[in-house]
UniProtKB/TrEMBL annotation:
Pfam families: PqiA
Predominant location category: membrane
TM stretches of this protein: 48-72, 92-120, 141-160, 172-191
Stated name of the protein: Paraquat-inducible protein A
Any single GO CC term annotated in Swiss-Prot or TrEMBL for this entry: plasma membrane
Organism expressing this protein natively: Pseudomonas gingeri
Keyword S-adenosyl-L-methionine part of the UniProt annotation: no
Keyword Signal: no
Length: 207
């Protein structure tokens, strides 16, 4: 049995359990005073909007140069993938692997994973509640690692600034990539995980 079936609502701010009122008016948490809802209002719509926006920005994030490293007045802008290739060519395989996973695989997995969660909840696809919740928790966990490239660029721009001798400049690709990371993190936040359990009465988890 779900908590909502027993007339219990959870506050998403402080996680206090509240007895659902029968008058139907907007209810507030008895502990912190935050608004309490059976499910987050417009959760799916907001998550889809953030996800689609991040998917659109994902294209320029990978196609546009993310930074330009100049030495003695000369420098070529590089995208995320060209940076990974350069690291491989210089024999820096561990660093290349970290950048590839954090900047290519993780954002792609987040986009696909959130889309699968939304589709499975809306279309009642044959995914068990356990599979969905594991996917959701993994997406939340890996979200922070997508900012690795942005942190590295921010540090390099701040430290490597020697005029024409050597300098690092952030490009438009970095802005697009940072936007993708932030939007996917917000999409994971706006998605209400309680929706996962709303259509799983026939799952093996409840047998």
């Amino acid at each position: 049995m779900r908590a909502i079936d027993a007339g219990i609502l959870i506050c998403m701010e402080c996680h206090e359990l509240n007895r659902q009122e029968e008058d139907g008016d907007e209810q507030v948490c008895t502990r912190c005073g935050a608004a309490v809802h059976p499910r987050r209002p417009n959760s799916l719509i907001r998550t889809w909007a953030l996800l689609l926006t991040s998917a659109i920005l994902y294209i320029p994030a990978n196609m546009l140069p993310i930074m330009t490293v100049s030495s003695l007045g000369k420098g070529d802008p590089s995208t995320i993938m060209s940076g990974v290739i350069t690291l491989v060519q210089h024999g820096m395989f561990p660093i290349a692997a970290v950048v590839f996973v954090a900047s290519i695989l993780v954002p792609t997995f987040k986009l696909v994973g959130i889309a699968l969660l939304l589709f499975s909840v809306q279309r009642r696809q044959p995914l068990s509640a356990r599979q969905r919740i594991i996917m959701y928790r993994f997406i939340e966990f890996i979200g922070r690692w997508s900012m690795l490239d942005i942190f590295v660029i921010a540090i390099l721009v701040a430290i490597v600034n020697f005029g024409r001798i050597a300098s690092v400049e952030a490009n438009l690709g970095a802005i697009a990539f940072a936007s993708v990371v932030i939007l996917t993190m917000l999409a994971a936040v706006t998605f209400d995980p309680r929706l996962i359990w709303d259509n799983t009465e026939s799952d093996d988890d409840h047998e």
